[in-house]
Amino acid sequence: xxxxxxxIVIGGGPGGYNCAIRAAQLGMTVACVEKRDTLGGxxxxxxxxxxxxxxxxxxxxxEADNHMAALGVQTKGVSLDLPQMMDHKDKTVDQLTQxxxxxxxxxxxxxxxxxGKIAGPGKVEVIGDDGSKSYDAKxxxxxxxxxxxxxxxxxxxxxxxxSSTGALALPKVPKHLLVVGGGVIGLELGSVWRRxxxxxxVVEFLDGVLPGMDGEVRKNFQRILKKQGFQFKLxxxxxxxxxxxxxxxxxxxxxxxxxxxVMEADVVLVSIGRRPYTENLGLETVGIEVDNRGFIPTEHxxxxxxxIYAVGDVTHGPMLAHKAEDEAGAVAELIAGQAGHVxxxxxxxxxxxxxxxxxxxxxxxELKDAGIAYNSGKFPFTANARAKANLATEGxxxxxxxxxxxxxx
Length: 409
Ligand code: FAD
Hints:
This protein is α/β, with parallel strands linked by helices and 409 residues long. It has helices at residues 14-25, 41-46, 48-67, 82-106, 164-167, 184-195, 215-227, 321-335, 364-369, 385-389, and strands spanning 4-10, 30-34, 110-113, 115-118, 123-128, 131-142, 146-148, 161-162, 176-180, 199-203, 231-233, 236-244, 247-254, 261-265, 267-270, 274-276, 308-310, 349-351, 357-359, 374-380, 396-402. Strand 13 (247-254) and strand 14 (261-265) form a beta hairpin. The termini are far apart. The chain binds flavin-adenine dinucleotide.
């Protein structure tokens, strides 16, 4: 096997594997270093894909148990087979991660299994089970992704105090799941376990869920989730979790400070966000400094070091798989001498709950802050014929357009 490549990509997630495939398609010799045994990164292994498998399965269960009768479909004895649901999720993950391995073979990409570390300009060291080996690269792409943001005072054990990874593999439905953080991941996984029968309480620091999304959407969505049985404790923070014989005692304080309230739960999900992952990556050997939030700063995907690029969650922008993928293709094209480009103004975001919350472009708050005059058009699903026919009338479509030009914003 050669130890010199046109491109070495560190990280085999959506940013890394897509960059490796595109670079190979453009005629370059490529290696991709991944410390996990399987390719696909957070997204395929413990993120987008397993969560979507459980979201779909739990939605079908909830439909069968609670909603089909109204449509004239009588079901008898609907019951949950959680091991089978988890097996379906695991098989989906296996098939998709193997699919990436197949694409690597097809595109003649060398898959280096081990810890990738930059060891100076044009040098990558890979530390594997059988020792370490050094490789040369004309170009290095960092796509090491992100990791769960820890919560001070709370030790994640992936058993009763879990991150999203543990919440995707609980062996039984918790009686009371306390979700710390009302962002996308907390609400998606909260929805899974709510539908399967758990009581779910979301503790959120801010005064509403889905920070950053359009205010009207946030307010309405929270109301919809409340109707589905979610409980919310807003403007509050979790300051500690104590394990006792009977379960977990969770200390909750008002965000602004004040008296501590103790809540009981049998599982706590910590989902307060993710942070860029650059541990032991050897950035100092090439003089790359991360910013105050840990991200690798880039300009048109280039870091401050010659021939080294960064894409995906490890650099700025929304932490989304399709953003990482888009950057991955663009950086490969840039390295090949083409004009790689990503339009950051139109990256969509979806919360895969029921109903789903999908958005693209500017929120009303952003337009107000920027002093842009706009018209807001809204159509409720209660007045939409197809939504009525499906008994799915929660929600609306909202379009914001420039007041003068009518351009959709
Ligand atoms: P990652 O996918 O994190 O991949 C980085 C890879 O690099 C990892 O496999 C890691 O093991 C490897 N690595 C790190 N350091 C090294 C090293 N030094 N050497 C070798 N390997 C290394 N996004 C969506 O768009 N839609 C969704 O529905 C969605 N759902 C999600 C649900 C959950 C529960 C979570 C946690 C995330 C979800 N995301 C979703 C976000 C999405 O997973 C990330 O945005 C995406 O995976 C980022 O891709 P990436 O390639 O930058 O990083």
